[in-house]
Every structure is written in structure tokens, then in C-alpha cells.
Amino acid sequence: MENKSLVAGVLSIVSGFFGLLAAGYMVLMIFMMSAMFGGFYEMEPTVLFDFQNISNVFALIYGVMGGFFVLLGILGIIGGVYAIKKKYWGLGLAAAISGTITFFPCGIAAIIMIAMSKEEFNRTAATQPVTRP
What we know:
- By secondary structure, the chain is mostly helical.
- The chain is built from five helices and no strands.
- It has one domain (4-40, 51-125).
- The chain has helices at residues 4-37, 51-84, 89-102, 104-116, 118-127.
- It is elongated.
- 32% of the residues are buried.
- The mean pLDDT is 87.
């Protein structure tokens, strides 16, 4: 199979999409907590176990996790596109690794395929003409 980087790129893009989907789920959880507990308020230091304080803490946790999944999803999609174009093998590998965090089955397969296709990246870089101004 000569075009392993195409398969690895598609798998990385799929994993990146699932990362963005997970981030959307985190945002949905924040809105659901806001609706359940009547909005977010300033935390009062005297009352530790109030429902508004707990919802603020969970909103912060879900917000950080959502941001993390957005970054991994974007990295997966961009790295998958570069893997399909057979440019920047390291970025393709980083996308496959981030895909392992967002969607494990596709991420593992992408790591294997991108590792097997390193020669494709080298051949493509060697055959491109160098243009200098």
C-alpha cells in the first residue's frame, strides 16, 4: 500500500472532529448546569457546599476540558490535512497522537499508519524542486 499517509490523514481528521464534538458536549454540560442550578454566581467563601458554588467549580472544570479538546481537535484536523498533502511528518504524527486522546481507535490506527509512511514524506520532499528568489 503506497498511500498510507492518506489513510493516516483521514483518521486524524476523524479524530479531530470527535475532539471538537467532545468540546461541544462540554459546553452543553456547562449550559445544562447553569439551567439546573439557576445560573452562576460569585462564590461565597463562608459557604463551601452550596449548589451555586459547586456548579461554578464544575463549569470551570468542563470549560478547561472543553478548551483542551478544542485545541486537540484543531491540531488533529490541521495535522491530518498536512498528512494527506505529505508535508511535515512531525505535525502528522502530533495530530495522530492528539487523535489518540480524543478518539482512541482512530488515533492508534493513525499513529501506526503515519509511522509506516515516513518514507512517503521523505520521497515527496526529495522530488519537489527548490525555488529560491
